[in-house]
Amino acid sequence: MKFKTDTLFLILSLVIGFAIGFVLEICLRYVLPFSENRIMIMTIYIAAFALVMGLVLLLKGLSNGTFVNMGKVMLLTLLAFVALVGFTALFEYIYELDFQAMKKYSPKEMQYVFIVDDSGSMYDRFTVGDNQGNDSSGKRFDAVDEIINNLEETKNFAVYLFARDVKCVTKLGTESSKNYKMDDRGTRSNAGTPMLTAVETAMNDVCKGKDVHTKFIILTDGEAQDKEKYSSLIAEIKQNDASISSVGFGAPEDAFLQKMADETGGVYVRSDDLSSLGNDLDKVVKAKPVGLYKDRYLLGSRNDATAGNFLYALLRVVFLILLGLLWTVVKMLLVGEKKYTKKATVVSCILCSVAGILVELLCLPGLWVLGVLARILFCTLWACTIIPTVNYQPNLNNGNLHSEFSGRAIDAPSDLSSGSQGVDGPKSFL
After folding, report:
1. pTM of the prediction?
2. Where exactly are the structural domains of the chain?
3. Cβ–Cβ under 8 Å, residues 203 and 215
């Protein structure tokens, strides 16, 4: 029997898989840094992929007319889908366990340093007319006040302002959060935005001999004008086991702030509305710096003591391959044509195995771009589906009806020459 691949659907499945992976990656970008429940996130990730791609395969199967017992197909598909989702949650749970042979985690104490932009753009933009600045009402100060007031009383914090100069408003300490108020606010200066100088100044003040993790949190509306310090500053931040997170509003340089967060283990949040500035700052404060805590999940890098551990590498590859096999079962149920699924099954198993290996090879600590690529490739390879073409061409010569379904001929009923139109279609998977 000749297997003729439906090339158009093969290409379509690759495109759809890439699109699903891209959308899911955007969702992960805004959820992962602020969530501790990786099991739920990974389960939803796989379930969302399977639902969307499964619907595409179902529509293709229906258009081919290869289902006879639709109820049975749906029941078996549902059971396979539930198994896929259930094992995803189980494997993620096991993958996050710390085995006795592994180094135990003892998270460092955290101290917070708020670095607040107080440059001229916050007040009156370029001092022209009556134009209001990006935060002339001081919402950023209110947001910092509220966050500090809600910190545990044992937590150290400091506050710095930067405009023309860098100014320490509150020195590092455990000043009572109940009566804290940042009344000493800077001068209105149009001299620029020395953002990195502010971080450098604060780091020199608070990171000397401290066995704690320092979390620098920047609130800014503009572009850093001292980028020549970037490389040396990032190196010192890493050496001091610190991180830089940011909240941008107004007209921030998103790409730069995101890069700075990615390279130091921090997070970046863009706040589009001053009324939500407090909530966005709260997200940044609560986000765990990458590398400080146990930070690993099936489709991401291992940013902890297990980064180079062979056991966790093997666990991930095996788990993703097993999940790929379960997904293959779902796919083949929805494809429908049993005689022609052998080749499709083998190819799907191989591609799903390759996808699992790629995730392990590309998801490396500190190289987030490769992680994004790995997850999109993972979805693309999982979606790739080869199925036989349906080429139905009746031929009434000599009393026989020839119909090709991937090259298969079907004999016509004996009474066809008498005018009967009944023809047996292609046999279904079920």
Report:
1. 0.58
2. 7-101+297-383, 109-286
3. no
